[in-house]
Amino acid sequence: MNCLTMNTSSQPSTPLCVDLDGTLLNTDLLFESLVQLLKKNIFYIFMLPVWLSRGRATLKHEIALRVEIEVRTLPYHEPFLNFLKQAHAQQRPLYLVTASNILIARKIAEHLNLFSDVIASDKHTNLKGKSKGLALKQRFGEKQFAYAGNDTSDLAVWQYACTAIVVNAGKKLQAKVQRMIKLEQVYPSNIHLIKILPKVLRIHQWVKNFLIFIPLLAAHRLTDIELLTSICLAFLAFCLVASAGYVINDIVDLEVDRQHHTKNQRPFASGEVPILYGFLLIPILLGLSAILVSFLPLMFGVILILYFSLTLSYSLWLKCIVLVDVFCLALLYTLRVIAGVVALQGFNLSYWLLAFSMFLFLCLAFVKRYSELLHAHKLNKKQAEGRGYITDDLSILANIGISGGYISVLVLALYINSQEVRLLYQTPDLLWLVCLLLLYWISYIWVITHRGLMHDDPVVFALRDRNSYLVVLLMGVVVVIASLWGF
């Protein structure tokens, strides 16, 4: 992130008052605290209106009394923090001045050990905008302090300051501040929501939703325009709901993700995208999905609601329960296949397909957990963050996962010998090659996982892996030949 140094008459002895939310931190502590509160007890949601009716200061204070924020892993604005460390080394007086509650602000000040004092909201006063400006004017005197902020509400503070540092603000706000007082430093905003949106929505994960097409593909009906249109609408609806689930999961998992070696780079965990944007995005995604669902059979909507409910339960509770979490992941995959069936009126669910899906996706779910636990083991940790497994479980996870994968191949082998296959394929015996390829791929990903080379998400790994592409291509060729040519 670039820093622009401006000409200024500010002296090193001039007190620098530093805002917290959006300035020193690339996040908002009120939303961070709110997430932690509702994770602790969802029924606190009924107390929020009561506290808010007594004022924003009371709301912040009551929440702060009930949560513990992990201040070490918060997304600090590193370039600005380095500037503050240099200023502290030069013995410039620094003050943490924030609208966040003083209970949390003091913990951050103690952690950073840079500030002479903390001036923050308490149970009675919401120190924001005009009230913050007047408090600093009374404390230091008009034009006797510098102020670092990021929001339009900070204009009411800058009018009493002698110089300004603008952090994470747009060009319009920078221009307003520059017309008001002299600028010491400018740290431009790096938020480009359009560019980061695919990462927020985890669009690369949408590839999982192509499982919806499997029933149509298995029935050899891809050329039916009406059915293809329905399945495409179902695919888009599922993608939107899945992305809403990913946003919820990322917000709920903020603290855990920040302690993870790769998940700490997710948009919300890293502070790249404000949590508020996530709260706004969720109803938009669900609303757009609901519009698409209105054109599809009612049962598809029921399956989609079940999927979203299960996703929500997984994010909040189930992923911490040993074995329940992996079975839940496998079920979420399988629900995509079932959704593909119910989106097509007149189609019946194939129990062969259902059994195959459950065992294969159970295998992949165990790959995911094994990979996370193995990384924790290499870091000499006893347990993976936010999970119920201990490192001693590694061998049993591998055994169950490999068994699930091989059973899926067995189900496929039994299906090849069924009467249904004789009706769909000219040369069904060729499908034994698919069994061989699938056996290879399952064995291959477990070898990769055991070596510690597996990505946190097997789907992401498969999208980047040449061997996986080759296996899928060969399977496709075999299926096409078995369908069209008789020998």
TrEMBL record:
<dbReference type="GO" id="GO:0005886">
    <property type="term" value="C:plasma membrane"/>
</dbReference>
<dbReference type="InterPro" id="IPR023214">
    <property type="entry name" value="HAD_sf"/>
</dbReference>
<feature type="transmembrane region" description="Helical">
    <location>
        <begin position="275"/>
        <end position="308"/>
    </location>
</feature>
<feature type="transmembrane region" description="Helical">
    <location>
        <begin position="320"/>
        <end position="343"/>
    </location>
</feature>
<dbReference type="InterPro" id="IPR044878">
    <property type="entry name" value="UbiA_sf"/>
</dbReference>
<dbReference type="Pfam" id="PF12710">
    <property type="entry name" value="HAD"/>
</dbReference>
<keyword id="KW-0472">Membrane</keyword>
<feature type="transmembrane region" description="Helical">
    <location>
        <begin position="430"/>
        <end position="448"/>
    </location>
</feature>
<dbReference type="GO" id="GO:0016757">
    <property type="term" value="F:glycosyltransferase activity"/>
</dbReference>
<keyword id="KW-0808">Transferase</keyword>
<dbReference type="InterPro" id="IPR039653">
    <property type="entry name" value="Prenyltransferase"/>
</dbReference>
<dbReference type="GO" id="GO:0016765">
    <property type="term" value="F:transferase activity, transferring alkyl or aryl (other than methyl) groups"/>
</dbReference>
<feature type="transmembrane region" description="Helical">
    <location>
        <begin position="469"/>
        <end position="486"/>
    </location>
</feature>
<dbReference type="GO" id="GO:0009247">
    <property type="term" value="P:glycolipid biosynthetic process"/>
</dbReference>
<dbReference type="Pfam" id="PF01040">
    <property type="entry name" value="UbiA"/>
</dbReference>
<protein>
    <submittedName>
        <fullName>Decaprenyl-phosphate phosphoribosyltransferase</fullName>
        <ecNumber>2.4.2.45</ecNumber>
    </submittedName>
</protein>
<keyword id="KW-0812">Transmembrane</keyword>
<keyword id="KW-1133">Transmembrane helix</keyword>
<feature type="transmembrane region" description="Helical">
    <location>
        <begin position="349"/>
        <end position="367"/>
    </location>
</feature>
<dbReference type="InterPro" id="IPR036412">
    <property type="entry name" value="HAD-like_sf"/>
</dbReference>
<keyword id="KW-0328">Glycosyltransferase</keyword>
<feature type="transmembrane region" description="Helical">
    <location>
        <begin position="227"/>
        <end position="248"/>
    </location>
</feature>
<feature type="transmembrane region" description="Helical">
    <location>
        <begin position="396"/>
        <end position="418"/>
    </location>
</feature>
<dbReference type="InterPro" id="IPR000537">
    <property type="entry name" value="UbiA_prenyltransferase"/>
</dbReference>
<keyword id="KW-1003">Cell membrane</keyword>
